[in-house]
Amino acid sequence: MLLKVFKNTVLFSIIIGISAGTFSCKNNGKQEVEQNTVKHIVDHSNTLAHYVDNDSKKTIIVGANRTAHYIPMLKHKRVAVVANQTSVIFKPEGYTHLVDSLLSLNISIEKVFSPEHGFRGTADAGELVKDGKDTKTGLPIYSLHGKHKKPTTSQLQGVDIVVFDIQDVGVRFYTYISTLHYIMEACAEQNIPVLLLDRPNPNGNYIDGPVLEEKHRSFLGMHPIPLVHGMTIGEYAKMINGQGWLKNDVTCDITIIEMQNYNHNSTYSLAIRPSPNLPNDNSILLYPSLGLFEGTNINAGRGTEFQFQRYGAPFLDKKHYTFSYTPEPNFGSKHPKHKNEMCYGVDLSHVNAERHFTLKYVIDAYHNATDKSKVFNTDNFTKHAGTATLQKQIEAGLSETEIKATWQEDLNKYQHIRRLYLLYN
Asked: Which of 228, 302, 307, 405 sits between 20 and 30 A of 334, alpha carbons compared?
């Protein structure tokens, strides 16, 4: 499948790099690789690839590109890979999928595990993804968004090490971090080490939103973290281990291949859409805020080419809203909300989105619904919010400032915990 590439923003510069350390959650140590082994594998340290940081102009090296630091860990091992369309190694001429690259280096990949949206990233949100076979490599693919969200004992049989490499966007209900949890838990139970290749978080410069309440735990939120958690997926793996969130207090033996020249204030654009309905920078930056519409009966752009850049519904006041659109089935959304119905609402596709979380869009839609009883899908909204309180606050007419003030104590506590696991400034 041809991977969708972002075109609307100056991209980060990523060097195919070799020279940096790894982090082990088990021993907090740096793994050293003998110099002759490094040179034998690959040396791309002077090869410029894709992206330039908009602010510092520094280049960034993602974990997957630091092949010399992890290929020795995979040699003569039976490997399973947890991957999707974002799992790539960048090269001057473009990129190659991690699985293809590892196979070309004679790494013995036994099987692939795929998250929500599937291995090639084409399935709808929440769509049942079945097990199958990769048509390009012939490798068996086991879905972690179908019958089993956690790998079974039999699925991990014959595996010596699991490689995890998936691009996240830093939002609690974006389910790749739930998949990470189950991978770590299953591997810990079977004494299989995990190798995680870290990638940047486009919403990693802040934390915000209500902290998940344990009674509302689901695949859309498994841990007591804010809606916007402010961590890379590698840092998040450290937190899962360190906070004892795995069942029966097991600890995963995980090694994290860190990025170079990344910090949480870096501004950049992802090279590949992380899921079918996040097509560009605006959608990713607006996703924390507009993602709450997934728990309502209001369409958030699915069924258009402006996913998470607009919202609307037939029951929003057409006298108040001058913008309208009609959702139709398309790539990534076979059955969008209000399919083939005129929706009235707001277009944000031309807004220069900033990296922050706001309730103003959900509050605006609720206050301008002609029938307010149609707005919330309560159970689903609670799962997305992580609390039943938020819906009640909006219905009671509280302002955004008043609502956010009720989160502050929990955010302060989380901020202290978060600092314990950061790998980057």
From this structure: 228
